Amino acid sequence: METQVKVFKALAHPIRLKIIKKLSKGEMCVCKLNQDVEFSQSNLSQHLKILREAGILIGRKDGMWTHYSITNEKVLEIIEIAGNLD
Questions:
Q1: CA 35, CA 19: separation in Å to the nearest integer?
Q2: How many CA atoms lie within 13 A of 71 on its CB side?
Q3: Could you report the per-residue pLDDT of 27-55, keeping only the tens digit for each?
Q4: Helical (H) or strand (E) element with 68
Q5: Which of 3, 59, 62, 72 could tie 66 with a disulfide, CB 3.0–4.6 Å?
Q6: Largest Cα–Cα distance in the chain?
Q7: 2-83 has which CATH code?
Q8: Where are the domains of the chain?
């Protein structure tokens, strides 16, 4: 149950949902994730850390950049289901 709580807490923030939606198209460099956002690099790093700790994202180092991707596509299903509750 602890894992479920971590996942739902991680998904319960608009910025983190925005990050996940960007990554739904595939792996992305942190430099690309930081484009077109209204928050700082350090703020982005904090949100990415929370998503990684919840097991939602995985990071892959490539030189000085980290590329992020969604670990399990089922998280997108959860988001879609929640969006249909309106």
A1: 11
A2: 12
A3: 999 989 888 777 788 899 999 999 999 99
A4: strand 65-70
A5: 59
A6: 43
A7: 1.10.10.10
A8: 2-83
30/61 Cα distance (integer angstroms): 10
Q: What is the pLDDT of residues 6-20, one digit of tens each?
A: 999 999 999 999 999
CB distance 65 to 29 below 8 Å: yes
Alpha-carbon torsion angle 21, 70, 1, 6, nearest 10: -60
Residue 83: band (very low, low, confident or very high) from pLDDT cuts 50, 70, 90: confident
First to last CA, the chain: 26
The identity of residue 6, as a single letter, is K
Write the Ramachandran bin of 40: left for phi over 0, alpha for psi from -120 to 50, otherwise beta: beta
